[in-house]
Amino acid sequence: MSSSVFLTDKFRDKDSKYLQSLISCKSCGKCCNGKMFDYILFGNSRIKLPCKFHKNNRCSIYSSRPINCRLFPFIVYNGIVSAICIECPAGEEIAKKYIT
User: Fold this and answer.
1) Residue 87: what are its φ and ψ, rounded to 5°?
2) CA distance 78 to 100
3) Is the Cβ–Cβ distance between 72 and 7 less than 8 Å?
4) Confidence tier at 62 by pLDDT (50, 70, 90)
5) pLDDT value, residue 100
6) Measured distance CA(13)–CA(34) in Å, rounded
7) pLDDT one-digit tens code per residue, 7-46
8) What pTM, to 2 d.p., does this model score?
């Protein structure tokens, strides 16, 4: 499974627009193709991966994708940013810049 860095309060009080501004997606598709995760959480539901909306390394519902997808590589649990996935190239970049 995926490697994560558990965060202190550094990002927990930030709004989603700020967090999204830190993310520089590399379009590798690892987050959607099932290689990192078996599922993502969407509210109280699990969406099985690979995601049926992931086509040609792109999200076919990009403008209306779930918040957990919007904020990835930040890992959101119960509405709180609790970790960052460092297997994701964008997550590794954020961790190096803001955490280490």
Assistant:
1) -75, -25
2) 25
3) no
4) confident
5) 66
6) 29
7) 656 777 788 889 999 999 888 888 898 888 888 877 678 8
8) 0.80
Structural contact between residues 82 and 76, judged by C-beta atoms closer than 8 angstroms: yes
Q: Which residues pair with 41 in a beta bridge?
A: 46
Q: How many CB atoms lie within 10 A of CB 53?
A: 16
Tell me the CA distances in angstroms from 96 to 39, 87, 100, one per residue in order: 26, 12, 5
Show the 3-state SS of 41-97.
Answer: EECCEEEECCCCCEECCEECCHHHCCHHHHHCCEEEECCEEEEEECCCHHHHHHHHH
Answer for the pair 9, 79: CB distance below 8 angstroms, yes or no.
no
CA–CA separation, 60 and 53 (whole Å): 5
List, in order, residues 6 or more apart from 52 with CB less than 8 Å away.
none
| Separation of alpha carbons 22 and 91, rounded Å | 9
Q: What is the DSSP letter of 59?
A: E
In which band, very low, low, confident or very high, does the pLDDT at 6 lie, cut at 50, 70 and 90?
A: low
